[in-house]
Amino acid sequence: MADPSPKAIMRAAAILRRDGLDIDDRLAWDEAITAHLLASNLLDDPAGCVAGYWPMRSEADPRPVMVALKERGVPTALPAMVPRADGPGHAITFRNWFPWAPLVPGGFGTLVPVEDAAIVHPVCLIVPLLAFDAGCRRMGYGKGHYDRAIAALRLRGPLCAIGIAYASQQVQEVPTEAHDEILDAVVTENGIIRPQDRL
Q1: What is the reported pLDDT for 198?
Q2: Which of 145, 101, 94 is nearest to 124 (CA)?
Q3: pLDDT recorded at residue 90
Q4: What is the bridge-based pairing of β-strands 185-188 and 191-193?
Q5: What are phi and psi of 92, to 5 degrees?
């Protein structure tokens, strides 16, 4: 039975809206997102690892950012799904990644580093999303994987969690629950949005 909740309805509409964006527009917007992110101070912790993701479907593409960071000598990582240690289901872990390293199918149509790649704990996390609002509340795919990963990393120490998306993915307000983690920033082709920027 389909979930009739307002969040589920918004999620379905967000998928259709993002999937309907023109591929040529998305490529140009990805370039602008990359430029905004690399010119910002969001990735300024040179001692820490930055984790991105391998895009699936119509997600904004962080790979140019990751390649540029690696060229600057910044350690980079990609997420991989592993069985949860605290119960059923899966959780996100992060494995060391560098351009042209071998990747394997990771489920959900994405690719992940091989199993023997080193496990790392990023201090900066670039995350995908379906929708966001001016308060940097993020709507994901509904499984809570990134919320749990962000919460676990924040327990370890300072973390900068950054969403990348297209400006048309912004909505008036993302419904939230207690476990939903607010991002430190969202970067679109139009620039950078931080939680304090909300009206």
Answers
A1: 46
A2: 94
A3: 72
A4: antiparallel
A5: -90, 130
**For residue 133, what are its two tokens?**
């609002």
Interatomic CA distance for residues 183 and 186, integer angstroms: 7
Low-confidence ranges of the chain (pLDDT < 70): 1-3, 45-46, 83, 85-89, 108, 197-199
Tens-place pLDDT, residues 146-172: 999 999 999 999 999 999 999 999 999
Question: If DSSP states are collapsed to H, E and C, what string results for 54-112?
Answer: CCCCCCCCCHHHHHHHHHCCCCEEEEEEEECCCCCCEEEEEEEECCCCCEEECCCCCEE
| 77 neighbors 94 (Cβ within 8 angstroms) | yes
The pLDDT assigned to 20 comes to 92
In degrees and rounded to multiples of 5, residue 51 shows phi and psi of -105, 135
Task: Name, in order, each residue with C-beta under 8 angstroms of 125's C-beta and a sequence gap of 6 or more.
Answer: 50, 51, 149, 150, 153, 159, 160, 161, 162
Beta pairing partners, 163:
127, 186
What residue type is 146 in one-letter code?
Y
- Model's pTM, two decimal places? 0.90
